[in-house]
Structures are given as C-alpha cells and as structure tokens.
Amino acid sequence: MAFNETVTRRLEQWASSLQDLGPVILGQNKDVKIEEIRESYISKMAEHPVVEDVRVETIDMGGVPGTLITPATVMGDRVLFYIHGGAYIVGGPGGYHGLAAAFAVAMKARVYLPDYRLAPENPFPVPIEDTYAAYRWLIEEGQDPRSVTFAGDSAGGAMVVSVMVMARNAGLPLPAGGAALSPWANLEHTGPSMFNREGLDRLNTKAGLDLMARTFLGQALPNSPEASPVFADVRGLPPILVQIGEAELMLSDAIRLASHLGENRVRVTLEVWPNMFHVWHMFQAELAEGREAIANAAAFLGRAIESTAKS
Asked: Is 154 marked active-site?
C-alpha cells in the first residue's frame, strides 16, 4: 500500500531516529549517548499535530512524573490511562500529545500519561512497576475505577494487560476496559509474522526487537508473564480490544494475545488492519485508517464504561 508523502516521510524519520540505538546499547558507539537518541525519538513523534481545545499539563502521579491532557468537553469523570510505547527503552508523554489528545476528544475523557523509567538503566520490571504505581495513585486519589479505561501502544499495549494483572493480584480495583494497540505481547518473538513480515514492517526488524527485548529484560526470561502477557494469568480482566496492523512483525503474537484472553474468559475484540504498520494510530492527522482505529477504540472503551456503570 502506498502512503502519501507526509506519512512516508514521517515513517522514515521515525525509523531513522533509532538507527543509532543498537550500536549504543552494544557499546559500539561511544560518541552518541542514549539520552540524545531518546530526545531525537520524542522530537520526531512530537511533530504529529495536536487537536485544538485541549489543555496539556505536567503532573506528579504519586512519585511518577506524568502528563494530563484535558479536552474542552469531559463526560462525567471519564479517564483514559494511556501507556506510551518505545520498547521500554525510549519514548515518553512528550511524543504522545497528538495521539493522546485525539483520544481525549474522541472519548470526552481526561487522559493521564505516566512517564515511567526506562531500560537499560531501569530494566524489567521497573517500567511496569512505575506504571502500576501511577494507576494505584489515580485510584487512591479517589478516581472511580468504573470510569477508567486503559490504552497503550507497543510496549504500552503489553502493559495494558500486565498492569491490569498486577492490579488484580494486589487487590486494586480494575478499570472498565482496555485497548492494546500494536501490542508487543511476546518477547520470545516466536510468531510466524516475525519471519514472514520481515521487510514489510516499516519500523521494526526481528534482530532489532530481539536486542531491545534483551536490553529491557536484563536477567529475566522472555517468557516472564509480566513481560510477555501471552503467558500471564489473565483471568478476571475486563474487556480488552486488540488492534494490530497486518504488515507488522508483531501480528501473530498480537493474535495469540487475543486468543489467550478469550480462552481465559476475557471478553476480547480483535481488529487486524490490512497493510497497516506499527502504531499507525500516531498518523491519525494524515491517515483515515488512523482516525477510524482511534474511533473504534474510543467506542469500545466508552461501551465498557457504560456497561460497568450499569452493573
């Protein structure tokens, strides 16, 4: 599928912003610091336009830095807890104002984005624990969990499930539902698409994902349930939507996540989008498929809130 010039250019910039990450992680490039790569990555993502009539502010989420995006109209006390991606190594709320604002407007909800610590300085399970701590803060501040939903992309898509499991295990009330966008759900990378989509995926390679997984995991195994939710005990979780692009290396493992959820009596909806690349939602300003995917996710999460309110 051919994309317009703006989408193609931004995809190329997004991919190129991480071209030095491997050599830096492996110690092969001493001239570039990982902080510089992170800044470049966020700056490229921050080029995506932000819809008007939203307020963006930095906040403290119980010791975890965060960002709060508030649209002009909020329906009741609706909250979307959005978990950013970036392989647990890069990324941050600063690169997600455009996507989070689009969700805020679509859902008429305040959007909280925790800025969890990153690997390799803070490997597994620190990013997941930080994100859980931010959710715990939100509930302890008095937010009704029945009006909360989760969404996240890539590593954040996996954490949609992982943080719910952590909350359930701790006895913390669960949100009404979740949306996992292009989830990085299996760090073993055993799905067929890890091989037959190589070269079709515009942003990832299996070798690159393998390196980032090892960097994040430290001494943990890739099949650790907290890191790879396809191995987690997901019983009792609320409804979850999984959206994945057909051209992604992560396609098969996202489908496996949806199957795992369904087989464990979690109500799940799976959407596979032909020809779409990793987290195409980021390009919602230029790409009709991005806007439609966000609208679908917002509708799913809205219905989850309404269903919970009635129960």
From this structure: yes
State how far the Cα of 157 lies from the Cα of 86, in Å rounded to an integer: 10
The tens place of each residue's pLDDT in the chain, 311 residues long, gives 789 999 999 899 888 889 899 999 999 999 999 999 999 999 999 999 998 899 999 999 999 999 999 999 999 999 999 999 999 999 999 999 999 999 999 999 999 999 999 999 999 999 999 999 999 999 999 999 999 999 999 999 999 999 999 999 999 999 999 999 999 999 999 999 999 999 999 999 999 999 999 999 999 999 999 999 999 999 999 999 999 999 999 999 999 999 999 999 999 999 999 999 999 999 999 999 999 999 999 999 999 999 998 77
Q: Is the peptide bond before 120 cis (omega within 30 degrees of 0)?
A: yes
Provide the residue count of the chain: 311
In this structure, the strands spanning 54-61 and 64-71 are: antiparallel
Q: Which of 228, 278, 281, 289 is catalytic?
A: 278
- Check 17, 154, 162, 228 and give the catalytic one: 154
Give the rounded distance of the alpha carbon of 9 from its chain centre.
Answer: 22
CA separation for the pair 151, 182 (Å, rounded): 11
Q: How far apart are CA 193 and CA 248, in angstroms?
A: 7
The Cα 40–Cα 111 span in angstroms is 24
For this structure, is 248 an active site residue? yes
Domain boundaries, the chain: 5-310
- The two tokens of residue 173 are 């009330």
- Residue range 5-310 in CATH 3.40.50.1820: yes
Catalytic status, residue 292: no
User: Edge to edge, what strands does the sheet with 54-61 contain?
Assistant: 54-61, 64-71, 110-114, 79-83, 148-153, 177-181, 240-245, 268-273
How far apart, in whole angstroms, are the C-alpha atoms of residue 267 and residue 197?
Answer: 28
Structure tokens that stand for 62 in this block: 């119980």
Catalytic residue chosen out of the listed positions 248, 260, 271, 289: 248
